[in-house]
């Protein structure tokens, strides 16, 4: 099988890193918990326009920096704090040891996403990395997923043997559906509110991968009968 995996909040704790940076910045500015809550809320899980987030930071903390400089400050802060989720990289190693291929498919700027990948040492655990900024196309456009498949020479693969795994319904699941691949949503405990549900929903990335693998195995058994080797 082929696994196309989102980066932020799927392999690495991007929101945890932003919140950790925000707490430190608020403390340095003499703010309180209400400032942390406001800044984290403005970020909208990394999906808000960056200058909008910067504007809230300036208003709350009294910074005098220009907005682009504020954006760079919190981006650096994220890189300083980001970590891979426990056990996730080992799970990727296990998939590859079984003959599966793994590709990171992420939206974002090249510098920021490559910086997270380097800090968290993700690259040795995957077969390729595809970043929207470098390809000039972003999820939910399915072309980014097609590029990922091309990158590993699998553009002609049966789409039923490909999974798109991520935490963002409007980006990851939508892109997977548009590309005709199977979809798995990492919910982090949130309820689904995006219309037709993905093929698999799990609370954590490790749980989601396990559920997707079990679903794929069950489908293979149903199609070919017990004992048939699962396609890679």
Description of the molecule:
- The chain is built from ten helices and six strands, in the order E-H-H-H-H-H-E-H-E-H-H-E-H-E-E-H.
- It has 232 residues and is α/β, with parallel strands linked by helices.
- It folds into two domains: 2-12 and 87-224, Rossmann fold, CATH 3.40.50.1000; 15-81, no CATH class.
- A six-stranded parallel beta sheet has the order 3-2-1-4-5-6, sandwiched between helices.
- The N and C termini lie close together (4 Å).
- Class per helix and strand makeup: alpha/beta
Question: Do you know the CATH topology of the largest domain?
Answer: Rossmann fold
Shape: elongated
Strand content: 5-15%
What is the terminal separation in angstroms? 4 Å
CATH class category of the largest domain: Alpha Beta
Q: State the total count of DSSP E strands.
A: 6
Average pLDDT figure: 95
Radius of gyration: 19 Å
- Number of separate helices: 10
Strand order of the largest sheet: 3-2-1-4-5-6
């Amino acid at each position: 099988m082929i696994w196309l995996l989102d980066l932020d909040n799927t392999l690495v704790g991007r929101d945890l890193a932003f919140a950790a940076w925000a707490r430190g910045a608020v403390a340095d500015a003499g703010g309180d918990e209400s400032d942390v809550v406001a800044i984290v809320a403005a970020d909208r899980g990394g999906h808000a326009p960056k200058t909008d987030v910067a504007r809230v930071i300036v208003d709350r903390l009294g910074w005098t920096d220009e907005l682009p400089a504020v954006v760079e400050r919190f981006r650096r802060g994220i890189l300083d704090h980001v970590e891979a989720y426990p056990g996730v990289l080992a799970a990727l190693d296990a998939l590859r040891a079984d003959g599966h291929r793994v590709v990171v498919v992420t939206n974002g700027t090249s510098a920021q996403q490559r910086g997270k990948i380097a800090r968290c040492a993700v690259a040795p655990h995957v077969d390729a990395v595809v970043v929207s900024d470098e390809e000039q196309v972003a999820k939910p456009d399915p072309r980014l997923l097609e590029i990922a498949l091309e990158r590993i020479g699998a553009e002609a693969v049966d789409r039923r043997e490909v999974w798109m795994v991520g935490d963002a319904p409007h980006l990851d699941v939508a892109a997977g559906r548009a590309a005709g691949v199977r979809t798995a949503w990492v919910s982090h405990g949130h309820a689904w509110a995006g219309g037709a549900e993905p093929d698999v929903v799990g609370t954590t990335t490790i749980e989601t991968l396990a559920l997707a693998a079990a679903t794929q195995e069950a489908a293979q058994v149903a199609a070919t009968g017990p004992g048939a080797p699962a396609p890679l």
